[in-house]
Amino acid sequence: MSSNIFRFTRRDALKLSVAAAALPVLGGGLARAAGPIKTAAIYTVPVEQQWVSRIHKAATIAKDRGDIEYVFSEKVSNTDYERVMREYCEAGHQLIVGEAFAVEDAARAVAKDYPDRAFLIGSSFKPDAAANPNFAVFDNYIQDASYLTGIIAGALTKSGSIGLVGGYPIPEVNRLMNAFMAGVKESRADAKFQVAFIGSWFDPPKAKETALAQIDAGADLLYAERFGVSDAAKEKGILAVGNVIDTQADYPETVAASALWHFEPTLDAAIAAVKAGSFKADDYGQYSFMKAGGCSIAPYGTFDAKIPADVKAKVAEKEAAIKAGTFTVAIDDNEPKSS
After folding, report:
1. pLDDT tens per residue, the chain (339 residues)?
2. Alpha helices in the chain, H assignment, sequence order
């Protein structure tokens, strides 16, 4: 994939300052934005990484339909993140998209210094309208889809021992693991879990190594919150459940189900707010819920005939209830534990 990395030096930014001054005022002024919105995204990992790939996909779709002009930087270190944010602001980008999980204070400081820019930032914290009226937060609240994949996993495990490998025990990961485990219990009440975190957002070899250890300890199905876990499952001939993206095409005999995140509703809501001049500090997490179209369970594909009919019927019933609002998957941000 082309990197399309877009970086500015301070000199480049200053050259564009005159052009930037002519752009519509956002944030504090909240003027309406006419034409495509100049949008810049800053990612700490490669765009191939699950979570970021969904943001990148939604932004590319919005660009292709003419709603935004889109540039991005990937693999930006935490120590360099603030500088890149400021350079994009100086260069006149109206909407800044990114992730602040390890750089929360710095990201909010930048937003305070640029009240005429709109910030849509992944965060484990809530918006603070008093301090940052132009800083909206989002997260992948796909617990609905994760719960449904758990129902399938509970039906497919033979031993009842399931391994879960995550990046860090932060709310956005914890809630998905907990929802998955709750779904498993719907089908396999006596299931046991091995939970581990690798301390990285992108380290497939370490994730694979951790998953192999769980298999050696008895797990016969894995929850692949990170890349590398499905490789271990494939190597050992057991099943895996995917997270955020659908990797079944790469693991047709391994990945039985996946919970998909759709960032389009989140980004589209932000674009509409910027265009209307109404962008403000807000929590965009609601747009990741299943009833908002922010998540779904992937097509069964190669496992369509392998998942029992009654299990698929139960998943369909729960999915309909979630969308109708008659059933709510609990949001549990506490760190999951092995059992």
Report:
1. 333 333 433 334 333 333 333 344 443 444 455 789 999 999 999 998 889 999 999 999 999 999 999 999 999 999 999 999 999 999 999 999 999 988 999 999 999 999 999 999 999 899 999 999 999 999 989 999 999 999 999 999 999 999 999 999 999 899 999 999 999 999 999 999 999 999 998 899 999 999 999 999 999 999 999 999 999 999 999 999 999 999 999 999 999 999 999 999 999 999 999 999 999 999 999 999 999 999 999 999 999 999 999 999 999 999 999 999 999 999 999 999 999
2. 10-15, 17-21, 50-64, 78-90, 104-113, 143-156, 171-187, 204-216, 229-236, 264-276, 309-324
Pairing of strands 118-122, 161-166: unpaired
Q: What is the CA radius of gyration of the chain?
A: 21
Query: Which two tokens mark 321?
Result: 């209830």
Instruction: Please name each of the domains of the chain with its CATH number.
Output: 10-138 (3.40.50.2300), 143-262+293-324 (3.40.50.2300)
- Name every residue whose Cβ is closer than 8 Å to that of residue 216 and which is 6 or more positions away in sequence: none
The CA distances from residue 139 to 100, 175, 259, 263, 269, in Å, are 11, 11, 15, 9, 14
Say how far apart CA 131 and CA 128 lie, in whole Å.
6
